[in-house]
Design brief:
26% of the residues lie in helices and 35% in strands. It has 360 residues and is of the alpha+beta class. The strands form five sheets. A six-stranded mixed β-sheet has the order 5-2-8-10-9-7, sandwiched between helices. Strands 12, 14, 15, 18, 20 and 21 form a six-stranded mixed β-sheet that branches. It is globular and about 60 Å long.
């Protein structure tokens, strides 16, 4: 049993309930109802010791599993500054096993560790711990889906965040981090409806990958979970274009079990820098915007099928970021009305539209 001796501490968790948009279309009329987001910040004051099972770093992770992820970690050249050391990677794999044990009890599929999402979570954790803030935005004003797409991610991402701030130092070792990560996850799973946004994210049946990141700096610990929905193979997506220029999003579902249901494009202004104090006062983030720039419904989507993939031309006239949602369903569409409620949103593609220097 590892006992992490701590002075009185404050644990902060940002709780989100229902961050997904809901659109419906039927009988020639469109109904778009963005669900209400209930935002709550939980402050738990803890005195004494945080206890957790002793994470036997070398022994708890099967060697073949560790070798597999070490090879992935060593071969990925993206965001190498935030690459995990072997001991940290093992601590995260222990946490992954713990998360998957919990998911199994709720009938959810096991997750795999995503290297890119983990490095993004490391970067976010480091910035938040150094800046003494906790939130879903970084100092550049970027939301989770901004950050993941800008690093090359194309999957849908959902984020959980937790933090510990204390008046004395914390254990900066991987063993100490393993205890704190488990404690944060247990707090997520202890949530009760209707304030159970973290827990719902932890056990969402559609998630199949996760990025895990943490950082401990003196009196600050930050923990970020990036849940990934990877169900689409993209052949051309994202990047930057000029206003009025056409781009094409080319993709297909990874499994024949899923059918493309609908496509939406949401316009978002370019992010603007934020202060740490401002981020600390912000709560949940929306996984959509009020500005829908493109919508393709089930009875229209077949017109974009080219062989075994979909080819969707897109043109946007206003500068900004365009967040592309691609909804999947496990049943083929039939009927004369449609709704994205309950469908799998599996895209994290973002298209940047900006005037080029010296021209339009």
């Amino acid at each position: 049993m590892i006992e992490l001796n701590m002075p009185p501490a404050t644990i902060t968790m940002l709780m989100n309930r229902d961050e997904k948009p809901f659109h419906a279309f039927g009988n020639g009329r469109c109904r778009a109802n963005n669900r209400i987001i209930i935002v709550s910040t939980i402050l738990l004051t803890m005195t004494g010791r945080i206890r957790g099972e002793a994470p036997d770093i070398p022994g708890r992770v099967p060697e073949d599993i560790f070798r597999h992820y070490r090879q992935l970690n060593d071969s990925d050249e993206r965001l190498v500054y935030y690459k995990d050391s072997d001991p940290v990677l093992k601590a995260k794999l222990i946490q992954l096993c713990y998360i998957n044990e919990t998911r199994a009890r709720f009938g959810a599929q096991p997750l795999k560790l995503d290297i890119l999402a983990s490095r993004l979570a490391n970067r976010m954790s480091r910035e938040a711990a150094a800046g003494k803030y906790v939130g879903h935005w970084n100092l550049d004003g970027e939301k989770p889906w901004h950050r993941y797409a800008s690093a090359g991610g194309t999957d849908h991402v959902s984020e959980n965040v937790a933090a510990i701030s204390t008046t004395a130092g914390l254990d900066t070792s991987p063993e100490g981090a393993a205890v704190m990560m488990r404690e944060m996850y247990d707090k997520f799973m202890a949530e009760k409806p209707p304030y159970d946004g973290h827990k719902s994210n932890c056990i969402d049946k559609h998630h199949n990958y996760i990025g895990i990141g943490y950082c401990t700096i003196k009196m600050e610990f930050r923990y970020y979970e990036e849940y990934i929905d990877r169900y689409i193979e993209f052949f051309g997506a994202g990047g930057g274009i000029s206003p009025g220029e056409e781009c094409r999003v080319s993709f297909r579902p990874l499994s024949r079990e899923y059918h493309v249901y609908a496509v939406m494009a949401y316009h978002d202004p370019f992010p603007e820098p934020l202060t740490a104090d401002r981020i600390n006062r912000m709560g949940s983030y929306d996984d959509f915007t009020p500005d829908i720039s493109l919508s393709i419904w089930p009875w229209e989507i077949g017109g974009y099928l080219n062989g075994d993939r979909y080819e969707i031309p897109m043109t946007f006239n206003d500068e900004g970021l365009y967040y592309i949602h691609i909804y999947l369903d496990d049943r083929e569409f039939s009927g004369n009305s449609a709704s994205t409620e309950g469908k799998l949103q599996a895209s994290g593609v973002v298209i940047r539209v900006a005037k080029r220097h010296g021209g339009t």
